[in-house]
Amino acid sequence: MNIKQFTDQSAGRVVQTERGYQAFVPNPLPPAFSWTPSAVALLSRADRALGELAGIGRALPNPHLLILPFARREAVLSSRIEGTQASLSDLFAYEAAPNPDAAGDVREVFNYIRALEYGLARLDDLPLSLRLIREIHEQLMHGVRGEHSTPGEFRRSQNWIGPSGCLLNDATYVPPPVEEMRACLGDFEQFLYTRSDIPPLVQLALLHYQFEAIHPFIDGNGRVGRLVIIMLLCLWDLLPQPLLYLSAYFEANRQTYYDLLLSVTHRGTWEEWIRFFLEGVESQARDAISRSHRIQDLRRGYRMRFQTTQSSARLLQVVDLLFGAPILSVKQVKDALNVSFPSANRYIKQLQDAGIIREITGQTRNRLYKAEEILNVIDGPINS
After folding, report:
1. How far apart are CA 219 and CA 228, in angstroms?
2. What share of the chain is helix, strand, coil (3-state, %, to 5)?
3. What does the alpha-carbon distance between residue 96 and residue 317 come to, in Å, rounded to a whole number?
4. Which among 57, 105, 252, 338 could bridge 86 via Cys, Cβ 3.0 to 4.6 Å?
């Protein structure tokens, strides 16, 4: 690390280790920082947008229409920040036809979904804690690239961040050594449990910075840190369902995201980081609101087309299934509706004839069908 860049100690201090390298040890939260009127206004806008999204989540008769596709989009984008190349279509195809020989990138993204669903379910009987964070990490890293990095365990050796192939002494950032890391994690957990007058969205921004600064795992820190955001939004009842995800914003502003995290470490620029985070909340809440309206409009249009057809009740169930699985197989329809293969095939053909889905494998068996219009609403440009 370049010690000359560390010009402020509000975020932490640089320590000299016994092995001769220097590392950064973050201070306990919260830091001291002052609010500007523009930052207060930004917090108000972010809170308002989040509240509007929460209202949509509470009013939905079937929130899974949004939860399933939004969570999968988040999994793709959060993993993409870390270098994976899998697309949302790749993920849906993998879920429709699991393949143990599938590309590692797809399995990594699928693990993100597993970790998210596992973590949210565990919140019913376990508070968000260091224990749960380790469990989430185990789900995330199991059986994929990085599995050698002790899934579910905090690191027992030094890690560092820098250009590919760089050594410890050339690193851009060196997190706290193991002993200091353990103390930092204790402080992190204490801040999680402490009642505070700090606005919840600001607490989220502080916690996300702190987790990335501690970097407690050998691999997977960024993804776990972003999963923690989602879980806290639900745990703190800021959202009734996991509908807000920041990875699209972080991915679109990836270099700024990294630069601002590092800037807090170097120069104590807390307000700049918090503003960036709040802008992300507002932006992604508005994005989710827009996509949710478009998804509901599209579903309403599809259902109107089939409400008068023979076997309409079953067919409408398949339509709803498509919004959670816009790439699907006949077997998925059979299992979801508990019907025979011929019946499932008949529903698929009706949707094909209507132009809602198309076959994408070109095979005579194990076919997959894609609902392009639904995928475009979930993952396409919001103004398209």
Report:
1. 16
2. 60, 5, 35
3. 17
4. 105
Angle at 355 between CA 354 and CA 356, to 5 degrees: 95
Q: What is the mean pLDDT of residues 143-153?
A: 77
Does this model's pTM top 0.85? My answer is yes
Beta bridge partners, 248, equal none
How many residues does this entry show for the chain?
384
Q: What is the pLDDT of residues 227-283, one digit of tens each?
A: 999 999 999 999 999 999 999 999 999 999 999 999 999 999 999 999 999 999 999
Q: Is 239 exposed, middle or buried (0-12, 13-18, 19+ CB in 10 A)?
A: buried
The region that residue 374 occupies, defined by phi over 0 for left and psi between -120 and 50 for alpha, beta otherwise, is alpha
Residue 384: per-residue pLDDT: 41
| Domains defined for the chain, CATH in brackets | 3-289 (1.10.3290.10), 310-379 (1.10.10.10)
Q: Is 289 helix (H, G, I), strand (E, B) or coil?
A: helix
CA 347 from centre of chain: 33
At residue 147, does pLDDT exceed 60? Answer: no
Beta strand 358-359 pairing with 327-328: unpaired
Beta-strand relationship, 22-26 and 327-328: unpaired
Whether 230 and 266 have beta carbons less than 8 Å apart is answered as no
The rounded Cα 54 to chain-centroid distance in angstroms is: 17
Beta bridge partners of 24: 14
Of 243, 295, 270, nearest to 73 (Cα)? 243
Instruction: Give CA separation, 289 vs 58, 62, 162, 215, in Å.
Output: 13, 15, 37, 33
Element (DSSP H or E) covering residue 328: strand 327-328
Q: Which residues partner with 111 through β-bridges?
A: none
The DSSP symbol for 14 reads: E
What pLDDT, in 10s, does the model give residues 158-197?
999 998 888 888 899 999 999 999 999 999 999 999 888 9
The 3-state DSSP class for residue 24 equals strand
Contacts of 108 (CB under 8 A, 6+ apart): 79, 84, 86, 144, 145
